[in-house]
């Protein structure tokens, strides 16, 4: 009866309702605020609480809708906003403009988590942040990316902090009907469901779609009544349970994810694996190719791998997902034998360093590497760290040539800027500033007068203080501390230097480093002439005793020193809390143990808002830091083994605060502006914001990874069946003939500034076009590394010796050089796809 009232109303206001639904389901609202006024008019209080347009639309009454629809200005606004949205969608994008004829038509981006907005809580932290921000930037740049992930109805836990500093775990159920997701339907209009078989059962996966501007995010959900109850809960929570739960989720992401794309007929040229979690995808992609083109699994893997791009986010071996043999056999044994037609052992070997070693676990990152045509770390330093971590897969290759590059992460600035910084940027650089190539952004922002920068900072800080007061009043009331709750409206000052520290509380982030200097910290916080305040937030993994103890240590510190008015631990760190903090703080602190922080992204979020960074020289800050931008801890070296290093960095941190940060914040000119400080803001905002934006990162992925991957994949796997057959045969023959090559004599003539070498080699059956000889020198002293190719000087027949020669001008002594032989087959990506190398001793 009531439903029918609503349905009738919807029918009679079909046009307006359709517009509202379209707007509410496009998560572009998480970074574009044009339509906020619409939702505010429909339900001001629900809008303020949730910032979720879809929820507002689900809850609204017919009377209220009838009322707003009767307002001509509302209807006019709705029309105009929709028009602007459509214009933005159809505007020619960076990708179309710069790469109009690219082979790249579709990238599928696989990730266990996506952080798009707090209204869709399917994320934990950094990894989801990278995925979500890159989808948004892809939308604005017009890069044809589709996300693939899991739909967790309980997401990640919500955090409560009790009066003793204990973390309490809350797990509210998120009703899909109130989240901005819709059923993903196939061409027949059916709700798409895809099957995955493991452990002897078929699991049906329901598919959902999220719209974010020009991109789509598809989500898989095992909560389908056709499944057994145990299987319905597989996708309940993110990263919950042990390895057995994890392997099921990863099979759903990789195998189910590919099948979903296949069922939709949306086969991508490029699959991007965000971390090793998604690596089972390479198996299913090859399986699809094998079935479609009638080749073997191994051939299919070689033909499809150029189309896979793998981004590793881990800086230490312990960070990789590993599964033991029994799990692989149980969950993938049948899949290997009945579907891929390979043995479970050979599948197991794809995840091992040493295929013969029965004690080795199955490493998802190794599978990802063996199935990808391009690999990258997430900062310059992390690229180096990853080359060292994965070098055992490339035996005898110099570290510098381990085929792992880097694309430093960036954040989606339009999602993280606040209203005050947005206003300032819009005046300096226009509304479309993050949609193009960013060329003029720096120079325009650099012209903003100091006093404007400073006013913006004061407004933003005041806004944060208001938020923190409301948040802490609730939090203290919840934990039964009524007096503190009442006092919360007076806590913090709108003018005081505000430090922020928020992140996951795990050991390597050393969240309690500052507490090693508690007396001096307390003195800073108590100072009334030059007041300093500190806002903290972060969740600890429910079983992580170290992380949990960090939270308690901070709460003990606050209680013991009675510093409630100057320092607060804000509960339930999520995207909403993060936004408030990064918009308002003056200084963002970060203290990871180098080199554990692969990149870090939260510090990038303060850039656009004029916050400054004080951080360990790790991850992104190791490549960004210069003294004109902020402050640094450490010396660009790793000191993991040094038991005194934490103490040393704690001392450095507190001294920096005492001697540099606080004095320069409070040093004011006649107009009350701290000029040394605003100069830093100007440099940091103007120069670092574009460099560490997701816009830059996505353009880099597109040009350095996606487009080359698409071309190589199309070239190898799609263009011409005969050619791919020839490629496979050549590759096979190259490997067979490689071992039969015999090195004969070498003659060196070293004169002043010249080295001349000739070689005699017996090639056997090897095609001379498929190998090359190189004169190689490592970097040494003032000299860089050198690679020179030998020329073929004499080749007659297979039975004869072949001669190679080279002459180079060089000031280096002969001892610097060595001779090596490499494969060089057209289209083969060495050493990634074939890590053969022979050094001629
Ligand atoms: C940005 C963000 C992160 C990632 O921060 P790090 O710099 O990697 O510590 C984690 N959680 C939330 C809620 C965030 O917004």
Automatic annotation (TrEMBL):
<protein>
    <submittedName>
        <fullName>Glycogen phosphorylase</fullName>
        <ecNumber>2.4.1.1</ecNumber>
    </submittedName>
</protein>
<comment type="similarity">
    <text>Belongs to the glycogen phosphorylase family.</text>
</comment>
<dbReference type="InterPro" id="IPR000811">
    <property type="entry name" value="Glyco_trans_35"/>
</dbReference>
<feature type="modified residue" description="N6-(pyridoxal phosphate)lysine">
    <location>
        <position position="605"/>
    </location>
</feature>
<keyword id="KW-0663">Pyridoxal phosphate</keyword>
<dbReference type="Pfam" id="PF00343">
    <property type="entry name" value="Phosphorylase"/>
</dbReference>
<dbReference type="InterPro" id="IPR011834">
    <property type="entry name" value="Agluc_phsphrylas"/>
</dbReference>
<keyword id="KW-0328">Glycosyltransferase</keyword>
<dbReference type="GO" id="GO:0030170">
    <property type="term" value="F:pyridoxal phosphate binding"/>
</dbReference>
<feature type="domain" description="DUF3417">
    <location>
        <begin position="16"/>
        <end position="120"/>
    </location>
</feature>
<dbReference type="Pfam" id="PF11897">
    <property type="entry name" value="DUF3417"/>
</dbReference>
<keyword id="KW-0021">Allosteric enzyme</keyword>
<dbReference type="InterPro" id="IPR024517">
    <property type="entry name" value="Glycogen_phosphorylase_DUF3417"/>
</dbReference>
<dbReference type="InterPro" id="IPR052182">
    <property type="entry name" value="Glycogen/Maltodextrin_Phosph"/>
</dbReference>
<dbReference type="GO" id="GO:0008184">
    <property type="term" value="F:glycogen phosphorylase activity"/>
</dbReference>
<keyword id="KW-0808">Transferase</keyword>
<dbReference type="GO" id="GO:0005975">
    <property type="term" value="P:carbohydrate metabolic process"/>
</dbReference>
């Amino acid at each position: 009866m009531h439903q029918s009232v609503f349905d009738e109303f919807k029918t009679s206001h079909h046009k307006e309702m359709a517009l509202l639904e379209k707007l509410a389901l496009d998560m572009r609202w998480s970074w574009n605020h044009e339509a906020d006024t619409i939702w505010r008019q429909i339900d001001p209080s629900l809008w303020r609480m949730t910032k979720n347009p879809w929820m507002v639309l689900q809850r609204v009454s017919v009377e209220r809708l009838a009322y707003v629809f009767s307002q001509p200005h509302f209807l006019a606004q709705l029309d105009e906003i929709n028009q602007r949205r459509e214009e933005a969608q159809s505007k020619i994008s960076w990708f179309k403009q710069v790469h109009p004829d690219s082979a790249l038509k579709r990238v599928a981006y696989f990730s266990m988590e996506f952080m798009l907005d707090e209204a869709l809580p399917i994320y934990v932290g950094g990894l989801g942040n990278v995925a979500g921000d890159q989808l948004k930037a892809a939308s604005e740049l017009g890069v044809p990316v589709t996300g693939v992930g899991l739909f967790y109805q309980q997401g990640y836990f919500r955090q409560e902090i009790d009066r003793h500093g204990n973390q309490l775990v809350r797990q509210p159920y998120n009703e899909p009907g109130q989240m901005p997701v819709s059923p993903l339907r196939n061409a027949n209009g059916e709700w798409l469901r895809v099957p995955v078989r493991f452990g002897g059962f078929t699991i049906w996966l329901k598919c959902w779609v999220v719209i974010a501007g020009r991109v789509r995010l598809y989500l898989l959900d095992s909560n389908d009544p056709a499944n057994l109850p145990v299987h319905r809960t597989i996708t309940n929570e993110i990263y919950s349970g042990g390895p057995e739960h994890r392997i099921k989720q990863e099979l759903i992401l990789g195998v189910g994810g590919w099948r979903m794309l296949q069922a939709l007929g949306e086969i991508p040229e490029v699959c991007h694996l965000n971390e090793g979690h998604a690596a089972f995808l390479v198996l299913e992609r090859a399986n699809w190719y094998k079935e479609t083109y009638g080749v073997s699994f191994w051939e299919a893997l070689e033909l499809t791998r150029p189309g896979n791009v793998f981004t590793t986010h881990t800086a230490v071996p312990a960070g990789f997902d590993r599964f033991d043999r029994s799990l692989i056999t149980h969950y993938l044994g049948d899949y290997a034998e009945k579907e891929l037609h390979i043995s479970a052992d050979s599948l197991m070997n794809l995840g091992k360093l040493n295929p013969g070693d029965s004690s080795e676990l199955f490493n998802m990152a190794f599978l990802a590497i063996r199935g990808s045509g391009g690999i990258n770390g997430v900062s310059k330093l992390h690229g180096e760290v990853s080359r060292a971590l994965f070098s055992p897969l490339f035996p005898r290759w110099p570290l510098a040539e381990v085929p792992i590059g880097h694309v430093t992460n960036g954040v989606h600035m339009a999602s993280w800027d606040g209203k005050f910084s947005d206003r300032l940027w819009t005046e300096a650089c226009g509304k479309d500033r993050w949609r193009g190539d960013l060329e003029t952004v720096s120079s325009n922002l650099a012209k903003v007068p100091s006093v404007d920068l400073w006013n913006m900072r004061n407004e933003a800080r005041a806004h944060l203080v208001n938020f923190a007061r409301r948040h802490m009043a609730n939090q203290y009331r919840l934990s039964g501390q009524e007096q503190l709750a009442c006092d919360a409206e007076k806590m913090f000052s709108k003018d005081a230097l505000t430090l922020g520290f928020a992140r996951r509380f795990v050991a390597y982030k050393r969240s309690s480093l500052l507490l090693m200097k508690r007396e001096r910290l307390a003195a800073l916080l108590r100072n009334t002439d030059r007041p300093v305040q500190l806002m903290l937030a972060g969740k600890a993994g429910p079983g992580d005793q170290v992380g949990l103890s960090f939270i308690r240590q901070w709460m003990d510190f606050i209680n013991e020193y009675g510093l409630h008015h100057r320092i607060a631990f804000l509960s339930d760190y999520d995207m909403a809390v993060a936004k408030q903090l990064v918009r308002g703080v003056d200084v963002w602190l970060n203290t990871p143990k180098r080199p554990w922080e692969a990149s870090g992204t939260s510090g990038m979020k303060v850039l656009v808002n004029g916050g400054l960074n004080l951080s360990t020289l790790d991850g992104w800050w190791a490549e960004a830091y210069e003294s004109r931008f902020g402050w640094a801890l450490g010396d660009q070296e790793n000191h993991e083994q040094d038991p005194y290093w934490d103490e040393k960095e704690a001392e450095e941190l507190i001294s920096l605060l005492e001697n540099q940060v606080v004095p320069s914040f409070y040093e004011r000119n006649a107009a009350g502006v701290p000029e040394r400080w605003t100069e830093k803001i100007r440099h940091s905002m103007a120069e670092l914001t574009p460099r560490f934006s997701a816009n830059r990162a996505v353009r880099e992925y597109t040009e350095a990874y996606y487009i080359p991957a698409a071309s190589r994949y199309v070239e190898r796997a799609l263009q011409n069946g005969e050619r791919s057959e020839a490629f496979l045969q050549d590759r096979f023959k190259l490997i067979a003939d490689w071992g039969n090559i015999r090195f004969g004599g070498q003659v060196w003539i070293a004169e002043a500034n010249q080295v001349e070498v000739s070689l005699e080699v017996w090639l056997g059956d090897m095609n001379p076009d498929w190998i090359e000889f190189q004169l190689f020198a490592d970097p040494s002293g003032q000299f860089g590394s050198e690679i020179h190719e030998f020329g073929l000087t004499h080749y007659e027949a297979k039975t004869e010796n072949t001669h190679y020669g080279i002459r180079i001008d060089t000031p280096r002594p002969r001892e610097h050089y060595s001779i090596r032989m490499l494969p060089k087959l057209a289209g083969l990506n060495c050493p990634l796809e074939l890590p053969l190398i022979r050094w001629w001793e």
